[in-house]
Specification:
- Helix content is 11%, strand content 54%.
- The protein is mainly beta.
- It is globular and about 60 Å long.
- It has a domain at 34-83 and 282-396.
- It has a five-stranded antiparallel sheet with strand order 1-25-24-23-22, with no helix packed on it.
- It starts with a helix and ends with a strand.
- Strand 20 (308-314) and strand 21 form a beta hairpin.
- The protein has four helices and 26 strands.
């Protein structure tokens, strides 16, 4: 009885919190927002194993959705995942490939963080890599017999307070890991994320090579720099990494001479060729536009100009530009998303200012031919102010 009295206050607080959450959840409008997916040309087979993830928004609610291809019915299946971002079904936050791993390899996936960047799949393996207590941990699942193997590599020599795996790729029997590690190297006291490439031979279970992707030293009191990793391409003798470098002009304030970051940084896009040990600054045209990705060692990006979106290919060796395809848009208000799978470029964009429609164009990069076009539109006439957003495309 004394124990009950002692903990009664805690239990009362927990019970009150549970009642508030339950009441709030019960009042959420879970009615699916009316969306139509209309194919205007091409075949839905081009969208096999691809999901479109985003949200719809009105004055009263935001509803997250996932559009999945339905191979049997030649259409897209709409899944309303969470009204106001709260729902019992939280698969919206997981890449569909991770859901497949969880269903098929429950034991291997148990306890692992659910970030697709930490996984790589081949015909023979599912590979996981992460940092634990300054060690690089690599786990390999052999699909043939479901056996697993775990290896650890110490990284104390990096002398970093924070390390993280940004991407892993398996190529030519070698595992390449893009590792970011933080160091306080700015004289202004800001931490800077450096990147290295770690190449591992899985059969020998050892690190074969470490290469610096980018290491930056900033000794300018008026500026500071940060990096954002975008993409990587590894094939045979090519190892490229695409990174945005943002430079902040620092504002000096008060007699104490404290520096603060300006909110309007300048930025440039850099291509790091680790095999050649070179750093290439990409043309301003690419920097000013959106969604650069690496394609066969070249840069594919979206140019938005005079009411037209075009997919451009920048040849790294010749520094020449080639237009792959273009589409008309009603005005300049559009936020394109560009992804590449196999030989195809997938371009998602909002073609009008009202944001009541999303368009997907799929183009064969080599021929420039459009092989699929579809539109996601609002089909509920009562929702005049509904806006449709797309956050990402997922391939699996």
């Amino acid at each position: 009885m004394n124990n009950l009295k002692r903990y009664w206050g805690i239990w009362s607080i927990l019970l009150a919190i549970a009642v508030i959450i339950t009441t709030f959840y019960a009042q959420i409008d879970h009615t699916p927002i009316g969306l139509d997916w209309k194919k205007t040309s091409g075949n839905y087979s081009e969208l096999d194993n691809m999901d479109i993830v985003g949200s719809t928004s009105t004055v009263n609610q935001s509803v997250m959705y996932r559009l999945s291809t339905n191979k049997s019915n030649d259409n897209l299946k709409q899944e309303i995942v969470g009204a106001n971002f709260i729902d019992s079904n939280l698969t919206i936050f997981n890449h569909q490939q991770l859901n497949d791993y969880i269903n098929e390899y429950k034991s291997f996936m148990r306890g692992k963080p659910l970030f697709i960047e930490l996984f790589e799949e081949t015909n023979e393996y599912v590979i996981f890599a992460d940092i634990k207590e300054n060690n690089l941990v690599v786990e390999v699942l052999y699909k043939e017999n479901n056996e697993t193997e775990k290896m650890e590599f110490p990284l104390e020599h990096l002398e970093s307070s924070y390390m993280g795996v940004y991407s892993i790729e398996y190529n030519n029997d070698q595992l390449y890991i893009n590792l970011g590690y933080e160091k306080e190297i700015s004289i202004n006291g800001f931490h800077f994320m450096n990147h290295i490439s770690i190449r591992i031979d899985l059969e020998q279970e050892k690190i074969i090579e470490e290469k610096q992707i980018v290491e930056h030293n900033n000794n300018n009191k008026q500026k500071d720099i940060e990096l954002e990793f975008l993409d990587s391409f590894i094939q045979e003798n090519k190892e490229y990494y695409l990174i945005v470098e943002r430079t902040y002009n620092l504002i000096e304030e008060s007699s104490e001479s404290q520096n603060f970051q300006n909110t309007n940084p300048t930025h440039k896009i850099l291509l790091y060729d680790t095999e050649a040990g070179e750093q290439i600054e990409l043309p301003e045209m690419i920097t000013e536009n959106s969604s650069p990705v690496l394609y066969k060692g070249n840069v594919l990006f979206v140019k938005n100009e005079e009411g037209k979106l075009s997919i451009e290919l920048f040849n790294i060796d010749t520094e020449e530009l080639e237009t792959v395809s273009d589409v008309e848009v009603e005005n300049q208000y559009t936020i394109p998303i560009l992804e590449v799978r196999d030989e195809n470029a997938y371009l998602l964009y909002s073609p009008n200012e009202g944001r009541n429609k999303i368009t997907l164009n799929v183009t064969d990069i080599d021929t420039g031919h459009n092989i699929f076009t579809g539109e996601l539109t609002v089909n509920d006439p009562t929702e005049e102010n509904l806006e449709v957003y797309v956050d990402l495309m997922e391939f699996y």
